[in-house]
Amino acid sequence: MADFNHIRIDRHDAGIAAVVVARADIGNASSPDMLGEIREAFTTLASDRDVRAIIFSAEGKHFSVGADFAFLKQLADMSAVEVKDTVYANFQGAARAIYRCPKPTLALVQGAAVTVGCELALACDFRVAADNVMFQESWIKLGIMPPLGGTFLLPRIVGLGRAMEMCLRGKQVRAEEALHIGLVSEVVPKDELGARGLELASELAASAPLGYATVKQSIQRALESSMDAEWQANLPNQAILLGSKDHREGLSAVTEKRTPKFHGE
Q1: Alpha-carbon gap, residue 118 to 112, rounded angstroms
Q2: Quick check: 72 and 30 in contact, CB under 8 A?
Q3: Where are the beta strands (DSSP E) in the chain?
Q4: Looking at residue 178, what is its pLDDT?
Q5: 217 pLDDT exceeds 90?
Q6: What is the mean pLDDT of residues 84-103?
Q7: Which of helix, strand or coil describes residue 3?
Q8: How many other C-beta atoms are found inside a 10 Å radius of the C-beta of residue 83?
Q9: Within its chain, how far is the Cα of 157 from the centroid?
Q10: Partners of 33 in the beta sheet?
Q11: Euclidean distance between CA atoms 210 and 195, whole angstroms
Q12: Cβ–Cβ under 8 Å, residues 217 and 102
């Protein structure tokens, strides 16, 4: 894997990898280079058979204070084609790599998660928040739109009305409300966030890799599909899973009343 300037990858036991944004000195403002590194990290870890779950987190007070304003000023002078290429290659590229990752992904969010940070957290399977968290989709305050999936994911996660509040008014959502509306799965004290993240990641890492990836992809596809299309797609997918070694291991573990040991085969 290439050397990174803005992030690092930590390896933990049980096949857990952590992609950590390491630019706390500027509040983790999101630049094209940083987003390119996040994209590369998730793409590489997705194909690493030794990795069973991925944590996404940041050093410092904040998960992300949003896009780098110096870069936003540069965008104003770019052509539409240049903007498209930059957004797709780096910003949307990072969101795509996280969202399409077949492995469990878990965002650990503390402090501010604004615009880019909010949308990258949304792209993860699960979000655990510190009790000082604040989510905000404040693009509208700059006269622009959420380009990384927020307009698609937010209505499906928190409902249309709350998504309208966040995207069209730039409403701030803090810990208690985020938990209440389902934006995060749980809230913990800030100093317990890392430990809780590893605990949950360990649980996810023990999942059957083929089963997890298939169910995750089926849920994502269903967001853009119909019930009839899902019934059609689920038949061959289930047939593949039923013939897997992981399925046989799961059956044996239930019969023998033990914890299964899945290998992604």
Answers
A1: 8
A2: no
A3: 7-12, 16-21, 53-58, 105-109, 112-114, 126-130, 134-136, 172-174, 186-188
A4: 98
A5: yes
A6: 87
A7: coil
A8: 14
A9: 13
A10: none
A11: 27
A12: yes
109 is written with which tokens? 């969010």
Burial of 137 (0-12, 13-18, 19+ CB in 10 A): buried
Retrieve residue 231's tokens.
């019934």
Distance CA 55, CA 194 (A): 10
Return the minimum-mean-pLDDT range out of 116-125, 139-148, 232-241: 232-241
| HSE-up (13 A, CA, CB side) for residue 33 | 11
pTM over 0.85: yes
Contact (Cβ atoms closer than 8 angstroms) between residue 113 and residue 64: yes
Task: Specify which of 23-27, 90-94, 116-120, 254-258 reaches the highest per-range mean pLDDT.
Answer: 116-120
What distance lies between CA 194 and its chain's CA centroid?
16
Angle at 49 between CA 19 and CA 183, to 5 degrees: 45
> Token digits for 86?
């930059």
Work out the pLDDT band at 241, boundaries 50, 70, 90.
Answer: confident
Give the tokens for residue 130. Answer: 């510190």
pLDDT confidence of residue 1: 56
Q: What pLDDT sits at residue 25?
A: 46
